[in-house]
Amino acid sequence: MIMSKTLYVINPNSNTDVTAGIDAALDPLRSADAPRIECVTLAEGPRGIQTQDDVDRAAVLVRRFAEEHRQQAAGFVTACFSDPGLHSIREIPDVLSLGISECGVLTAMTMGLRLGVIAILDISIPRHLRTWAAMGVQDRVVGELAIGRTVAELADSEATLEAMIRTGKALRDTHRADVLVMGCAGMAPYRQRLQDAVGLPVVEPTQAAVSMALGRLRLGW
């Protein structure tokens, strides 16, 4: 029964370009014998989730979406690296709720010892540090650096990839990271090219969260 339902991947911002990039990145995970993966854009959300205020506003919208769609849902993945609404959805009984920040870091910990995170803006980093502390993994995250681009500016592929490669190499060479995590769902289209350029494993966190969700659904966890 659960395999005939929909796994909703929620982009909590209103940027449809971000949703399209996420959707394309999830194509390798789609199969006929698994829940349908549907990426949705919350039109009422901020254009980009960059501040704590953006996160707080988005969390309410994410929870509302989950409540409205819980009957047809196999589960929900919150596709924002601040995981807005994650713990609120987990208060709904018998609902699978995963966040890309949590799943991205947990996946990276299986691929390397020293994690480096690529953020979009400096203002995002303290918020992420609070997450690592709450998870008890702050000692594994050896560095987080920002590329200095807003969510909307990630659509400029040439400039974004150049900034991500430069930042990834700094995490590798200065912080001695041996695995990288992309710290924004809007970075999804750049994973393979970043990995090729930097020579380290790169985790795209929405792929990580959806992979984890599909495994749990198959196993009934």
UniProtKB/TrEMBL annotation:
It comes from the Bacteria. InterPro entries: Asp/Glu/hydantoin_racemase, Hydantoin_racemase-like, Iso_Racemase_Enz_sf. Gene3D superfamilies: 3.40.50.12500. GO terms for molecular function: amino-acid racemase activity. Pfam families: Asp_Glu_race. Belongs to the HyuE racemase family. This is Asp/Glu racemase. It comes from Bordetella genomosp. 10.
